[in-house]
Amino acid sequence: MAQLTMVKALNLAMAEAMREDPNVLVLGQDVGRDEGVFRVTEGLLREFGPDRCIDTPLAEAAIVGAGIGLAFTGFRPICEIQFDGFSFQAFHQIENHVRRFRHRTRGRYTCPLVIRMPYGGGIRAVEHHSEAPEATYAHLVGLKVVIPSGPRNARALLRAAIFDPDPVIFFEPKAVYRAVREEVPDLPETMPLGKGVVARPGKNITLITYGAMLRPTLEAAEELADGYDLEAEVLDLLSVAPLDSELINASVRKTGRAVVIHEAPRHCGVGAEIVARIVEDSLLYLEAPVKRVTGYDTIIPYFSNELTYLPDAGRIVRAALETVRF
Amino acid sequence: MPRELISLPQRVESLSVLGPDGTLDRALEPQVEESDLLRLYKTMLTSRRLDERCLMLQRQGRLGTYGPSRGQEAASLGVAYVLRKDDWLVPSFRETAALLWRGWPISTWLLYWGGYEAGNVVPPGINDLPACVPIASQCQYGMGIAWGCKLRGQQRVCATFCGDGGTSEGDFHEALNFAGVYHLPFIMVVQNNQWAISIPRSCQTAATTIAQKAVAYGFDGLQVDGNDLLAMIVATREAVEKARTGGGPTLIEAVTYRLGVHTTADDPKKYRKEEEVKLWEQRDPLPRFENYLRQRKLLTDKGKEVIEEQIAAELDEHVRKYEQYQLDPLEFFDHMYAEPTPDLRRQREELRCYLESKKSAAATSPARV
């Protein structure tokens, strides 16, 4: 067991997969000699050489487009997009091709790519470097969209994504990259895609979240327990497509109350989908309307003011109390 | 030396072998088996007749919107002829002749334009991609395929097609740039048919040629008379040989002309002059190649008649097959993922029940007036 940051854990997952399967390769901007701007690809060029850890010219659409062609010739490419905000320069390749090839060729050609990118705000970055576009990608059926919350699940989920037969958008919360260390087992482990976990059990209210928002949500749960004698159940979704409806509804049926927390804007966010599923499947179990604590429907403010925008434990506690006192 | 001309190692040349008037450059004439010459002719003619049949079927409401490739048959066929079976061909959507040569069943092509996903089912044993509608986006995965072949040390090549309009897209340039940087066995064929719907080639780029764009990416470009099947064969052989032996990519600009409509939803009278079409009809690749065969005594009137009859019978057979295709209305739920998600299972069941209920309602209730 080693205490690893998320950066190190992701690096470990890639190295393990590349050792096991010669078809796994990494391509992207600055992933080789520079070892990635966040150092997630550290050591991969040294160990696997320039044909498997590939520094590319600066073109997101070509990184993803080449990944499709490489997949057709039997590779399992991991495409690194340097920042969430730049993924849109590859968006048409993802929308038009990555997610469609299996369907349009009736299973003949598939795109088992992983498209990794640093995700979300909170690290005082320049504009276009703090976006949370998960709902945009979750809406593109045919993709799987994964957002780990800590080092251990990041390593297990990335492994699952690499060996998954379908394309996976893999969002890595930058705010978590180096913020925490966690015990990560020596042997590779995997977690199922499309399944969430109970991060903290409880019976009075369900707090549903993912990614970097898990930490403020757990803090809020702590505060609710200490200050208000409320046992909040915290769900960490880990995947936003497919969405673990079963987990969400089972918890809400137990607690009768729910708050959804994410850092992306509220309008048409993943929270809207979660609320819809609760209403469809568990309406009569609800004791109060479901609340959303999210980013606002604005561009995320530049970093001097980004913490005002991002949900914190205070906002979550307030929403939870309103729900309980409804 | 404050200012001097930079000399570049890349070349941009033009090539034609068999002129529109039948003039043949014997020094450049490619060696092609006589039986192949006849098969090539039959494929070109099949493509032409298939186009005509599709336009008719579309007018009769038996086919959807159709994009004919009339006048461009030689440009794609010459490339397909040179490729090995295990090479990759990545089409845009006006490579009908190439796909026929590669062994795509006519009925599959009809299914595609008839609005069935089954039209994208690539026949087994062929490394081809189906048609690609988002302009030039196929250049990127074509480049990726070439890259994969190189990384695997397979000595296979990937020929990818787009049109003159496609050369304005970023994907075209990104793909060529990567192909140059990684020295890929990639052959980019631009079917310059002079029109991107209503925008003429002169408004698409200020460059003198499309072939010269290769120079910016560090490899050679070749402008070929795309209506000259022999020239297309010569150009592709050169490019394939180079790619297979580690010489990197080539850009081939096939200068041709879209004699027909962009698609059946288009009226070219709105934007181009009839005289221009007439001029290009004189450069039609089909009679040009036919005359070449006649001069070589490989084709007679009687021989042509037999080929026409064979083609008509084949088309009848495939149209029948296409129209007999049985669609499972729920099959669009398949192949979203390797395993259907719980949501997809639920939605499929929801629709199945609804369709069943509609069917039984129709069976039990009297017809509405």
Low-confidence stretches of chain A: none
What is the fold named in CATH at topology level of the largest domain in chain A?
Rossmann fold
Can you tell me the CATH class of the largest domain in chain A?
A: Alpha Beta
Rounded mean pLDDT of chain A is 97
CATH-assigned homologous superfamily of the largest domain in chain A: Thiamin diphosphate (ThDP)-binding fold, Pyr/PP domains
Measured as a percent range, the helix fraction of chain B is 40-55%
| Overall pLDDT metric of chain B | 96
- What is the helix/strand order of chain B? EHHEHHHEHEEEHHEHEHHHH
Supply the number of structural domains of chain B.
Answer: 2
Structure commentary:
The complex is a heterodimer of chains A (326) and B (369). Chain A has 326 residues and is an alpha/beta fold. Chain A has 2 domains: 2-184, Thiamin diphosphate (ThDP)-binding fold, Pyr/PP domains (Rossmann fold), CATH 3.40.50; 197-324, 3-Layer(aba) Sandwich (Rossmann fold). Chain A contains 13 helices and 14 strands. Chain A is globular and about 60 Å long. Chain A starts with a strand and ends with a helix. Chain B has 2 domains: 12-323, 3-Layer(aba) Sandwich (Rossmann fold), CATH 3.40.50; 331-364. Helix content of chain B is 45%, strand content 9%. The radius of gyration of chain B is 23 Å and the shape is globular. The model of chain B has no long low-confidence stretch (mean pLDDT 96). The interface between A and B is large, with 43 and 39 residues.
Summarize the structure.
The complex is a heterodimer of chains A (326) and B (369). Chain A has helices spanning 6-20, 44-48, 60-72, 91-98, 101-104, 134-138, 151-163, 174-177, 214-228, 245-255, 270-282, 306-309, 313-324, and strands at residues 2-4, 24-28, 53-55, 76-80, 114-119, 144-146, 168-173, 182-184, 197-200, 205-209, 232-236, 239-241, 258-265, 291-295.
